[in-house]
Amino acid sequence: MFNFFSEIKKELKIPEIEGSYNIVNINGKAVYIEGQNGLVNLSDSLVMVKVKGKIVSVSGKNLKLKEISISTISIAGEIDKIEVN
């Protein structure tokens, strides 16, 4: 599977850091999270994902999981806020 951040890191020769995570907000319409360790909550207004001992909360309207793999997840919808706690 294609992994956006892995490809960029390869091109820039940046070493992989075990347990790291990345979050990309795509114009408030989608969020891509690399380094996820599982879903905590899933609803059409709130998605919570575990990353490196923290929780990423994505809130908005009409949220849907578009893709999920072992380490990545993408969420689409009207994204209002992203928090890391």
Can you give keywords for this protein?
mainly beta, six-stranded antiparallel β-sheet, Immunoglobulin-like
Largest β-sheet summary: 6 strands, antiparallel
What class do helices, strands and sheet pairing give? mainly beta
Basic shape: globular
The CATH class turns out to be Mainly Beta
Q: Please give the count of helices.
A: 1
Q: Which whole number gives the mean pLDDT?
A: 86
- Record the strand order, biggest sheet: 1-2-6-5-4-3
Q: What is the string of SSEs from the N terminus onward?
A: HEEEEEE
Domain module tally: 1
Give the CATH architecture: Sandwich
Write up what this structure looks like:
The chain is mainly beta and 85 residues long. It has a single domain (4-84), classed as Immunoglobulin-like. 11% of the residues lie in helices and 60% in strands. It is built from one helix and six strands, in the order αββββββ. It has one helix spanning 4-12, and strands at residues 22-26, 30-34, 36-42, 46-51, 54-68, 72-84. Strands 1-2-6-5-4-3 form a six-stranded antiparallel β-sheet, with no helix packed on it. Strand 3 and strand 4 form a beta hairpin. The longest helix has 9 residues, at 4-12. The radius of gyration is 13 Å and the shape is globular. The model has no long low-confidence stretch (mean pLDDT 86).
